[in-house]
Amino acid sequence: MKKKLILASGEVFHGTGFGAQAETEGEIVFNTGMTGYQELISDPSYCGQIVCMTYPLIGNYGINRDDYESMEPAIKGLIVKELCDLPSNFRTQMTLDELFKKKNLSGISGIDTRRLTRIIRNQGSVKGKIVDVNADEQTAISYLNTAESPTNQVETVSTKTAYAAPGRGLKVVLVDFGSKLGIIRELSQRDCDITVVSQNTTAEEILLMDPDGVMLSNGPGDPQDVKGAKEMINKILGKVPIFGICLGHQLIALACGAKTFKLKFGHRGGNHPVLDLEKNKVAITSQNHSYAVEQKSLENTDLIETHIALNDRTNEGLKHKIHPCFSVQYHPEASPGPEDANYLFDEFIEMMHQFKNVTV
């Protein structure tokens, strides 16, 4: 099944298709992880994107039932150098190709992923389309350069109805902007009583649940497109402890008067070093984001920068000067990736206990 990848900038890559035969299009980004392709495919933050894996061999340990981060993948496609069709792992249940066929996803293998990554690094993230080898290239290029980018990714991936993950400990409301199961897993391991709510849940509805804390999850797209989130955050700020991850981090910044901007090619992978400015320690982190908080815009806010990325010195963490609220740009729940930053969930637990003791 010969296919080709066409970029909006005019470059064309020829390769072999896998998964569904259907064409697919989206923003092309690259991920530097050596493993974790199953978690990546099922991460809602990749909604609308085609991911290029920089590690050359993908699929070598297959697909299993335990490593999904959501029920249904939101990714638009996958680009790999070499696709393994004979995985070797005791948990393997199917191949990557079989999963893509079941989920009606399209991928392409056998292309020069190093060259593609260099194009993205030089030009920034670009739109692309995986098509049949006989498809007209100029038609595809013209379409990619005129089609509007989606702005409703969070609405697409967020839960439509609230649901519970019961526990006997602290009561946490998790606002689902595209949450990974890893967040629920980390809170559940700390015996939290979790209620997951939709991205458009109001502050009044959240406070009626009488939570001990609120988590703002990760999610896809531009934080400016998430309507109502800033108002909700402002209304719960100071009334309940808040912990934000990735998109949740950006939304806290916007709610407090800071600004965000789109990175040239984003941060994606499980090998990104981050410096904790308060502890003067470095953690290797899992990341997946296109946008970042503008550091200069923090000057006239009540937010303090707590973490920075060592690769490009961009913001990676914030805390509020007055209220119990902190956030990080990276993923302390990992999945995939290292667990260096796992302690942040413990800090959130401690923050909730301290707030309860003060308000009782």
TrEMBL record:
Q: Name one GO biological process term.
A: L-arginine biosynthetic process
The reactions it catalyses are: L-glutamine + H2O = L-glutamate + NH4(+); hydrogencarbonate + L-glutamine + 2 ATP + H2O = carbamoyl phosphate + L-glutamate + 2 ADP + phosphate + 2 H(+)
Q: Which Pfam families match?
A: CPSase_sm_chain (PF00988), GATase (PF00117)
UniProt domain Carbamoyl-phosphate synthase small subunit N-terminal: residue ranges = 1-131
Annotated pathway, please?
Answer: Amino-acid biosynthesis; L-arginine biosynthesis; carbamoyl phosphate from bicarbonate: step 1/1; Pyrimidine metabolism; UMP biosynthesis via de novo pathway; (S)-dihydroorotate from bicarbonate: step 1/3
Q: Where is this region: CPSase?
A: 1-170
Q: Which SMART domains match?
A: CPSase_sm_chain
Going by the entry's taxonomy, the superkingdom of the source organism is recorded as Bacteria
Q: Which PROSITE patterns match?
A: GATASE_TYPE_1
Q: Where does L-glutamine bind?
A: S45, G219, G221, L247, Q250, N288, Y291
The UniProt keyword set, sorted, is:
Amino-acid biosynthesis, Arginine biosynthesis, ATP-binding, Glutamine amidotransferase, Ligase, Nucleotide-binding, Pyrimidine biosynthesis
- Enzyme class, top EC level, equals ligase
An example molecular function term from Gene Ontology annotations: carbamoyl-phosphate synthase (glutamine-hydrolyzing) activity
The EC code for this enzyme is 6.3.5.5
The active site of this protein is located at C246 (nucleophile), H331, E333
PANTHER family, per database record: CARBAMOYL-PHOSPHATE SYNTHASE SMALL CHAIN (PTHR43418:SF7), MULTIFUNCTIONAL TRYPTOPHAN BIOSYNTHESIS PROTEIN-RELATED (PTHR43418)
Free-text function comment from the UniProt entry: Small subunit of the glutamine-dependent carbamoyl phosphate synthetase (CPSase). CPSase catalyzes the formation of carbamoyl phosphate from the ammonia moiety of glutamine, carbonate, and phosphate donated by ATP, constituting the first step of 2 biosynthetic pathways, one leading to arginine and/or urea and the other to pyrimidine nucleotides. The small subunit (glutamine amidotransferase) binds and cleaves glutamine to supply the large subunit with the substrate ammonia.
**Family stated for the protein in its record:** Belongs to the CarA family.
- Name-wise, this protein is Carbamoyl phosphate synthase small chain
Could you tell me which species this protein originates from?
A: Chryseobacterium lacus
Q: What is the lineage of its organism?
A: Bacteria, Pseudomonadati, Bacteroidota, Flavobacteriia, Flavobacteriales
